[in-house]
Amino acid sequence: xxxxxxxxxxxxxxxxxxxxxxxxxxxxxxxxxxxxxxxxxxxxxxxxxxxxxxxxxxxxxxxxxxxxxxxxxxxxxxxxxxxxxxxxxxxxxxxxxxxxxxxxxxxxxxxxxxxxxxxxxxxxxxxxxxxxxxxxxxxxxxxxxxxxxxxxxxxxxxxxxxxxxxxxxxxxxxxxxxxxxxxxxxxxxxxxxxxxxxxxxxxxxxxxxxxxxxxxxxxxxxxxxxxxxxxxxxxxxxxxxxxxxxxxxxxxxxxxxxxxxxxxxxxxxxxxxxxxxxxxxxxxxxxxxxxxxxxxxxxxxxxxxxxxxxxxxxxxxxxxxxxxxxxxxxxxxxxxxxxxxxxxxxxxxxxxxxxxxxxxxxxxxxxxxxxxxxxxxxxxxxxxxxxxxxxxxxxxxxxxxxxxxxxxxxxxxxxxxxxxxxxxxxxxxxxxxxxxxxxxxxxxxxxxxxxx
Amino acid sequence: xxxxxxxxxxxxxxxxxxxxxxxxxxxxxxxxxxxxxxxxxxxxxxxxxxxxxxxxxxxxxxxxxxxxxxxxxxxxxxxxxxxxxxxxxxxxxxxxxxxxxxxxxxxxxxxxxxxxxxxxxxxxxxxxxxxxxxxxxxxxxxxxxxxxxxxxxxxxxxxxxxxxxxxxxxxxxxxxxxxxxxxxxxxxxxxxxxxxxxxxxxxxxxxxxxxxxxxxxxxxxxxxxxxxxxxxxxxxxxxxxxxxxxxxxxxxxxxxxxxxxxxxxxxxxxxxxxxxxxxxxxxxxxxxxxxxxxxxxxxxxxxxxxxxxxxxxxxxxxxxxxxxxxxxxxxxxxxxxxxxxxxxxxxx
Lengths: 452, 348
Fold this sequence. Notes:
The complex is a heterodimer.
Chain A: H1 9-12, E1 26-28, E2 31-33, H2 35-63, H3 67-72, H4 80-83, E3 84-88, H5 95-105, E4 108-113, H6 121-133, E5 146-151, H7 165-175, E6 180-184, H8 192-197, E7 199-203, H9 208-221, H10 229-239, H11 243-255, H12 262-269, H13 274-286, H14 291-300, H15 305-319, H16 323-346, H17 352-364, H18 394-406, H19 411-428, H20 430-440, H21 444-451
Parallel strand pairs in A: 3-6, 3-7, 4-5, 5-6
Antiparallel strand pairs in A: 1-2, 1-7
Chain B: H1 8-11, H2 24-36, E1 42-45, H3 52-64, H4 68-71, E2 72-76, H5 83-92, H6 112-122, E3 133-138, H7 147-156, E4 161-167, H8 175-179, E5 182-185, H9 191-205, E6 208-209, H10 211-221, H11 225-236, E7 241-242, H12 244-251, H13 255-268, H14 271-285, H15 289-302, H16 307-326, H17 330-347
Parallel strand pairs in B: 1-4, 1-5, 2-3, 3-4, 6-7
Helix pairs in contact in B: 5-6, 11-12, 13-14, 13-15, 13-17, 14-17, 15-16, 16-17
């Protein structure tokens, strides 16, 4: 049920104006702000600022004729926090949409670059820099539209393929003649220089009421009225505030034809959820006998593999009991983990298929002996997360600080030597417990550390 | 002291250089240095718990006298930097273009640890009537390749500040550093001195222990006084005479024993139990995977195993450690090792 032009619904119902939008809640350094107002102000202020700067520069240029003079009096620039802004939030809440809608409202033109293009320094420069610095030839004849630069999916800039992109973007921010808006899903360490310079707006997922308003409007326009409220709730619930995901799912259901059994279709769409992982793990360990089967089981699910292999680790010994099989299974799982680490560190994504096969098939097929009737085996959450070297909890941190005041030894020694000793010392006698905690001046939480 | 200190090892911590248990020759040498008011950079080498840091701190205290607080600093080379410190190091790394000098506008590439923890202290001159400051760097071997940066620092800022480097592994320290330091080998106290110290505590705390049990105490703690005092205090809780049974009973649960238990459980072939124990060890003691593996290696040598079995186990540990370098999830890598050991036990 694509529309006549063949566009997906997400594009078809992309808001033309801010008024049509569900505006997500946003925060600037923990203070709530209205996102549309904030962006409007930002654009308005930028043009005021750039106008001022350009006028000043004209004056400076008149005086600066020789090279020496140019060195003495530099041309002014708009400070980076006023020329660029970063929107950070989960996918599908409308970061890109609000930029386009706002540009439409303000009668501006959007110049967009996103992760689908390679963004090396050269590529970025050729695309953006000229538009940024100069005005087109037509500008002398007709007053053209003002422009707005949108750098979408900034977090998709990778160190390897997009070499030099971050400095290029920084350069752009310093020299721009138009306001820049960047969008990103998550914090990326290699973008730290960017984060330092620009103002960041955090965007929260949409609330259910806002989503319902939009969804009902779409359903009305598409003349769909046989979708039960329960199913609608279900779709909204599982997408967790991702409006784009909801609209895509709705389209998926309607394309499948509503005459068919809704529940089956819906269950196909069921993404990340614990119940699914439970059944998936069970299927994987109990039913899969060949590599193809194991592959099919992992392929059909939408569960994040990042997550799935930790589940496999946790539940491996519940299904595989023989030491010989355990060894083979863990050999494969640990190799998968090593490969995954290399993929993450060096972006060797071509290794991903091995990772996939090793942690699913490689683990499961280690099991040679399948009892006829295995009975019910309980599946566990990944309970244990290794925290890495010396990351202390809050209570431990304050405990360590208090001990250090009285007895000057290293933090490692306190945790590895002194704490176990104190635990033992105070376990048997209340009196000593009181003496120790009084002497170190411990509060209830820190005392709990000793008891545990 | 107005307040009774409930922990003996703190209570009997030596307050002066002369109170250090045993090692009289060393102490005499250091006391002479204090009188001479000058010394080169020092390197203290000795096993864990032999009192290197205590001696170094007390020595600095007596050398600096009343100016101790402003001219003394102790840093731990093995502690990872906090995020704020890293941030500061990053911002310090740029020299502003507005500054005058050859460095203006350049980027300094000093390692973050040295930039944040060492430089601010040693760059400034000593305060008060002392010839120089004293900086103690503990676990110096943990600096690894950053040791190179110390070579120049020791020469350039030697006038401001003398360093006392403390380490347990001299093999991990690069030669240029060793050649710049005077070396002090610090061994645990001899039995006689150890006995005197223990007898002193026994007198004051009014507990009873036989002499051959003091010998036993010396043997099981390998002369580590703090550890021995801990054990003594634990044993004294139950009251009465301290005999070898009580001592062994209290010894049971220390961390190395936990690792040994882990190995034993593995060799019995009980994977589930082993995994639970390894998780407990990891979360309680905050070990990095490397530390767990090296502890296992250490404990493995104490077990009565055949030569063949030992080489096989070393092979497995090395393999797991190697994989953990690149791996994402330490738990998987450790579980892998445990599974291998369990299986290996069955073959044996």
